[in-house]
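debug: dumping io for the single-chain case to check the tokenizer round-trip. Nothing else runs in this session.
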Amino acid sequence: MMDSPGTPDTVVPVERLGPDPGTKLAHEVPPDILRGAGRRLQILAAAISAGIAVNLIIYRLVPLLGGPQFGDPPGPIDIDVIVLGMLLLSIGVFFIARFEWLSPARLLDAGLVYEVLLAFGAGVAIQAFAQSLRLPRWGISEVCILILLFPVIVPNTPGKVLLASLAAASMDPLGDLLYGLGGGATPSVSELVGAYHFNYLSAGLALIPAHVLTTLARQVQAARELGSYRLIERISRGGMGEVWRAEHRMLARPAAIKLIRRDMMARDGEDRDVLQQRFEREANATALLSSPHTVELYDFGVTSDGTFYYVMELLDGLDMHSLVERYGPLGPDRAVYLLGQVCESLAEAHERGLVHRDIKPANVYVCRYGLEVDFVKVVDFGLVGVRPGMPQTDGSLAIKGTPEGTPAFMAPEQILGDQPVGVRTDIYAVGCLAYWLLTGGWVFEGETAMEVLVRHVREAPPPPSSRSELPIPVCLDEAILACLEKDPDRRPPSAEALALRLASCVSESAHWADRGAREWWDIHRPPASPPAAGGGRKPSAGPSVP
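debug: decoded output
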């Protein structure tokens, strides 16, 4: 299992943080620019290769179609050699970027070298065409396009961009001088200034996108710093918030950080307060729970811009919705084994006076946890409620027009509001969850959410065995239908009682735990390679959001 931290990490707003020794310095490329550098350079090299090939074909076809006949321009280098060299260079850069033969930072530097070499080839080739057709040197060179294009697609630090842009800008005059030395007319200084001053103007303008992109990337990186944690990538997104994979900056410990969505916070004042109270209650409720089958909370807080967040363990596994969608309905032995762990998590919550109220496949994860597999974690206590008879201080935290739960898993009393929501409300949802695991379908389905809610209130559910090709014991059918009783008093009285009843229905559940689970994970979800130093292994999935 994941070790619990001895002392919670202090999470403070970004603006209060001191200098971060791990943050990139001003003269270094920000991580967000490094990310995807190979892909961008690969696309650019492919596009330029295609453009050169098309121009080479046109160069050969124009005379055949009655166009001007290109002469042999004076110069030390044959034009065909120049064009072919540019094509081979672009293809080479494509493969270097495609197979990531260089680190992201080196790839960006290689992109600058590529820019200068392309500009040299373009400068010589353009001068060859101009002299063969006796065209004037005046006008804006195609090299200007390269100078302005590269900082946008393959950005780098402003200093490096300036040096590469100045070198690229000088390739046109260099090509002009080379052909002058080869027998052509040698241009004067005034002619060179008049012909190519746009090149150097473009080199200056290239600093603008370089500065803007690197500055924005650093701002984004700073915005992703939450105290001791750095946001890496978004795992999931839902109606109330987002979940990000994160790393502890000093320990390189992976974590998941849940953020409330800013557009949800932008509602009118009353609803905004309700959302923040709900989010805070979720964090407090989860922090009270110590069951190994409840997601572990590390810390929570509010940033200076009002974004509420909490930091929890990062799960290596997949939720039960994805599990059944990808691999099909489960056998009774495995379903009972997993449901027993769900009941253990809920039993502790109920003992502490808390009701989850949103048990559903997306909120229950099946994980690899240390040396154990098929280890269940219950997440998202975002709709957690207080049991009847327990102290309640926050009143109703319902958002106007927002249903309290997920329609396919809501108990009749939760839908109608005619009875208190309690332990047996969660028992009903566990019955719906068991139905999904065994059949791959919801208890009730409909064209609209309202139709599903009405059916939960009025209709008797069919037994799971009637909707499954797998054999389901009669005892298990009866246990699940007992969970789905309309009257809460007719459901199992507690999560512990339900777990015992489920276990009595399947004699092979121990066999699944001892051998079947390990075999399944070895086949379908083999362990990922160990994380690199300073980075966390990317999980298959993470906590969902409501």
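debug: round-trip ok. Residues 227-524 form a domain with the Transferase(Phosphotransferase); domain 1 fold (CATH 1.10.510.10).
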